Amino acid sequence: QKVFADYGELPELLNEAMVLYQTCNRVFGQAVSQEVSGLPRDLPLDTSPIVAEFVAKHHRGLLFTRIGVLYGTAVADLLRMRLTAPLGYVRLQCESIALLKLMAEDSSVIQQWVNIQTDKEGIAFYKKYQNPVRDILKKYNLSNAYSQASGAALHSRFIGVAQGYKSARREDGLRIIQEHRINVQELDPENPHRFMIRVIFTVLRVQALILANLKDAVPEINDKLLLETRIPQFIDRLNRFLELACAHFAQYFPDVPQKN
C-alpha cells in the first residue's frame, strides 16, 4: 500500500472503480427486480418466453458481476506486488464486456454460453464469436489491453517470465556466484515504474473503458445519476491522473496511452 500511496490519487481511483462496480450491480438487480414484480403470478415457468427473458437477464447479471469480482481480485493481487494474475483477470474482463454486448443484441448467445459443458463446446463457441468479440473490443478501445494481457498472462511467452525475473551476482571467497530466480512478487524495488505503468495504464485504465461503455453493453444499468454523473466524474478524474502519469513516465515509455 505504501508503494501505491507514492502515486498520488492512485489508491483512491482503484477504490472508486470497485465502488462503481458495486453500485452498478445494485442498479442492475433493482432494474430486473422491478420488471419481475410487474409480471403476472401465474406465468408458466417452463414455457413462458417472458420468464426465459428474465432468466437470460439473470445470467447476464452474473457475468457482469464477475467483471467486478475479477477487478477486486486483481487489486488484491496488485497489493501483494503480483502482476501476472491481474493481467489475466483484465483479459477476462475485456472478453466478458464484449460478450455482454453480444448477448444484449442476441439473446440466443446467452443460451449457447450457458449450455457450454465440454471443452469442445467451449472451443466451438469461442471460434464462432471470436471475430464479433474482437470487433466490439476495437469499438470499446480495449483491443490493445486484451492482446497485451493475453500475451503477458495467458500465453507462455518470455514477457511473462521477465516480469518476475531477478538476477544477482555475489562473491563467496574465491567463488563468483550468479543467481537467477523468478519472484512471486513481481515489483522490482529498483525499477518500480515497470510494475506501476501496468497498474495505471492497463489495469486501471481498462476499468474506465469498461465503465465508459456500460450503457451500450449493459442497457439494464440505466441509472441517470450513475451514467451521467458518477462514471463521467470518475473518468475525468482518471484522465487528469493519466496526464500526470504520462509526464512522470515519459522517460521510460513516451507512447503510453493517455485518455479514455
Report the total helices. Answer: 11
First-residue to last-residue Cα separation: 26 Å
The residue fraction in helices comes out at 55-70%
> Over the alpha carbons, how many angstroms does the gyration radius reach?
21 Å
Query: What fraction of residues sit in β-strands?
Result: 5-15%
Order of helices and strands: HHHHHHHHEEHHH
Task: Please outline the major beta sheet.
Answer: 2 strands, antiparallel
Q: Based on CA inertia axes, which overall geometry fits?
A: globular
Number of strands: 2
In terms of topology, how is this protein built?
Elements: H1 2-5, H2 10-37, H3 49-79, H4 84-105, H5 108-114, H6 119-139, H7 143-154, H8 158-162, E1 165-172, E2 175-182, H9 192-212, H10 214-217, H11 224-249
Antiparallel strand pairs: 1-2
Helix pairs in contact: 2-3, 2-9, 2-11, 3-4, 4-6, 4-7, 4-9, 9-11
Keywords summarizing the entry:
260 residues, single chain, two-stranded antiparallel sheet, mainly alpha
Task: Describe the structure in your own words.
With 260 residues, the chain is mostly helical. Helices cover 70% and strands 6% of the residues. It has 11 helices and 2 strands. The chain has a two-stranded antiparallel sheet. Helix 9 runs antiparallel to helix 11. The relative contact order is 0.14.
